[in-house]
Structures are given as structure tokens and as C-alpha cells.
Amino acid sequence: MSRISIPTVEQSVEASKPLLAAVKQQLGVVPNLMKLVGHSPAALEGYLSLNGALNKGKLDGALRERIALAVAEFNGCDYCLSAHTYLGLNVAKLSEADIAAARDHQNSDPKIGAALRFAFRVASERGRVSDADIASLRQVGFDEAEIIEIVLVVALNVLTNYVNNVAQTDIDFPKVSAK
To answer: Per-residue pLDDT tens for 63-84?
Structure first.
């Protein structure tokens, strides 16, 4: 059971209701994470704004889902592993093998593999990556904008991992557990 209450959309703070309605329109449901973060309309708006901006960036949705899986595995966030496994399979159309590889920050495609290894290094080293880590991305064709976006996707997922780990958010997706 969640350590911080998860209100229904109707019970949510008034200022969060339009934001939650937009989530429902986009996803068809309002995940528990959104209702939980909706306790603070400012936090919900900030999360949704950064997520929305990254959706318009250079990294495709499949890579962003793979990064989310790698970061959630690293941080031991069962809620995010569950959510991003579901989204990976049903929205990004990743295979079970793709999901398993992403959780281990691996991929047979050199460019995707480099991005996942870099994302893992950003998370595990708290951003203190080496020149060689950056060079490995450039060698496979990532430009400066894409490198920055990888870092921001990691940061956005660390944010949700931490919120869910603190709150022990009730999982409302098919459950997946960290290794």
C-alpha cells in the first residue's frame, strides 16, 4: 500500500484536475503516479512539461522507453519497471527481448547500445561521466542535442523512480520487479 495517499481524479487538488484530464485524454487512463504527483500541481505541471518537451525532441519514443527501463532497473523502481514494460510493449512496440536487454542497458544495435550504456553511466555515476563516455556516443552518431536529451531522459526517470520508491506507489500496471 502506498505510503502517500493516491487520490482519485475527483479527490485531487483543483489545480491538478485539468492536468490529470490531459493525461487521461492522452493515455486513456490516469496512472497512480500522476495522481500521486498531483498532490502538488506545480510538481505535476513540471513533470508533464518536461516529459512533453522531450517527446518533441530528437530521441524517439522507443529509445526513451529503453532508457526508462535501464534507469528503473538501476534504481530498483518496480512501479517504473512495470509502467515502462507496459508502455514499451504496447506503445513503443518493443519485444520482450528488447525490454530484457534495456533493463541490462544493452542492445545489439551499436547506437542504441551506446545510448543505454551512457544512460546507465549517467545514473550510476550521478552525472560524473568521463570524456570516453561522451566520445562513445559521438562515435555512433549522436549529436550534442541528443546527448543532452539522453541526460534529461535519465533525470526525468530518476525523478519518477525516487517519487515511487519514496511513496511505494501502488502499481496499476502488470507488475514487474527489479532483479
So the answer is: 999 999 999 999 999 999 999 9
What are the phi and psi torsion angles at 72 (to 5°)?
A: -65, -40
Closest CA to 137 of 115, 122, 121: 115
Q: Classify burial at 57, counting beta carbons within 10 Å of its beta carbon; exposed 0-12, middle 13-18, buried 19 or more.
A: middle
Average pLDDT score over residue span 141-150: 98
pLDDT at 10: 97
For the segment 9-16, the average pLDDT, to the nearest whole number, is 97
Rounded to an integer, what distance in angstroms lies between the CA atom of residue 74 and that of residue 126? Answer: 12
Those residues with Cβ within 8 angstroms of residue 74's Cβ, 6 or more apart along the chain or in another chain: 105, 120, 123, 124
The pairs formed by 111-115 with CB atoms below 8 angstroms and a separation of 24 or more are: 111/140, 111/141, 111/142, 112/63, 112/66, 114/139, 114/140, 114/142, 115/59, 115/63, 115/66, 115/67, 115/142, 115/150
106-141 pLDDT tens trace = 999 999 999 999 999 999 999 999 999 999 999 999
In degrees, rounded to 5, the angle at the alpha carbon of residue 106 between the alpha carbons of residues 118 and 77 is 80
Query: How far is Cα 41 from Cα 30, in angstroms, rounded to an integer?
Result: 15
Cβ neighbourhood burial of 1 (10 Å; 0-12, 13-18, 19+): exposed
